[in-house]
Amino acid sequence: MEERQGNNMEKIGIVGAGSWGTAIAVLLDHNGHEVTMWSAIGSEIDMLQAEHEHKDKLPGIKLSERMRFTKELREAITDMDLVVLAVPSVYTRSTARQMKELISPGQIIVNVSKGIEEATLMTMSQIIEEEIPQSVVAVLSGPSHAEEVGKLLPTTVVVGAKRKATAEFVQDIFKCDVFRAYISPDVIGIELGAALKNVVALAAGMADGLGYGDNTKAALITRGITEISRLGMAMGGQLETFAGLSGIGDLIVTCASMHSRNRRAGILIGQGKTMEEAMDEVKMVVEGVYSAKAAIGLGRKYQIEMPIVEQVNEILFEGKKACDAVKELMLRESKEEHTRLPWLSDLVAGEVHE
Fold first, then answer.
1. pLDDT of 236-271, one tens digit each?
2. What is the C-alpha separation between 83 and 75, in angstroms, rounded?
3. Contact in structure between 227 and 306 (CB atoms under 8 Å)
4. CB 131 within 8 A of CB 100
5. Element counts in the chain: helices (H) and strands (E)
6. Cβ-based neighbours of 170, under 8 Å, separated by 6 or more
7. Separation CA 258–CA 242 (nearest Å)
8. How far apart, in whole angstroms, are the C-alpha atoms of residue 89 and residue 94?
9. To the nearest 10°, the Cα dihedral for 138, 143, 339, 344?
10. Contact criterion met (CB below 8 Å) for 53 and 30
11. pLDDT above 90 for 352
12. CB 49 within 8 A of CB 69
């Protein structure tokens, strides 16, 4: 299938019918596209067919009668102009393997899940390219809670792809009066910002659970994006990306909103619950838990210091108390905020004018 320029109506297959997949289905139906949704969970499809509403994940948001729901993966992929992969990151590889024989050469897959595979330290697009080499992969990310996108509240995201024509095609399909999409070639930067902000959001939630204030959260957001940027640039990402929608934009909304499952889980952990208890109570996949170990692995691989990520890992997997982690962060060795900024005494003689 050759890459095409956007038309008024395209056939879109959505693989994954959780909150984000459902919200995207609502948006693309709003844009006039023909939408087919698939889920590996048969009862989920039964509910969508019978109720035209995802009562568990997006209650109160009615789905159009035009949408189709299927338990057959083939029906959501074959002859589709675009396939949106919206399963949780821990299921990306297994789902991509199921999709491989159904994807036509050049068929575009837009990944919208956020995470890093712990065992391989690969991003979602890298996994898809490895499992489905005949596909053309794009990513979509930014400050975009499913609960708000499903209500068609104004939202802005960034689409990443290796080729501009691919990004523009996806941009054209998604853009509308309530959803603005920018494009970027920095796929790795977009994906790292999307995945690692979930780890920082866990930390922000823990601070909330401990009863700390806005100062603490602002510190975590600011120093968190510093850690993400350093690692991302070491891996080939661009600084501008981390200052944009999939970097600081997504980090702010995920650390501040109660729509964020990562923040909600962090709050519960800060209040004294274990990681397992918090995940059970949130009742959704908490992506930051799965990305935390991978983030540590990447930091070590690229020799990037990531103190916030390290403390989150110790809390999640080593039983460390959240209050002790905050004290340790505060009492770290004193440092400069930006090591690239020169001091007056360091400037070359003759360049200083008083």
1. 999 999 999 999 999 999 999 888 889 999 999 999
2. 11
3. yes
4. yes
5. 15, 8
6. 82, 108, 110, 138, 140, 159, 161, 181, 183
7. 23
8. 10
9. 120
10. no
11. no
12. yes
- Supply the pLDDT for residue 251: 95
For the question of residue 197 being annotated catalytic, the response is yes
**Cα–Cα distance for residue pair 116/309, rounded to 1 Å:** 14
Token representation of residue 222: 């600011």
Task: Output b/e per residue, 129-164; b: 16+ Cβ within 10 A.
Answer: bebbeebbbbbbbbbbbbbbbbebeebebbbbbeee
Structure tokens at 24: 């995207």
Please tell me which residue in 197, 217, 293, 320 is annotated as part of the active site: 197
Closest listed residue to residue 253, CA positions, set 156, 152, 185, 323: 156
Q: Which residue has the tokens 């499809």?
A: 45
Cβ atoms of residues 115 and 201 within 8 Å: no
The alpha carbon dihedral of 313, 314, 317, 321 has a sign of negative
Per-residue pLDDT of 49-94, as tens digits, reads 999 999 989 999 999 999 999 999 999 999 999 999 999 999 999 9
How far, in Å, are 102, 239, 250 from residue 236 at the CA level?
Answer: 32, 10, 20
Q: What is the pTM of this model?
A: 0.90
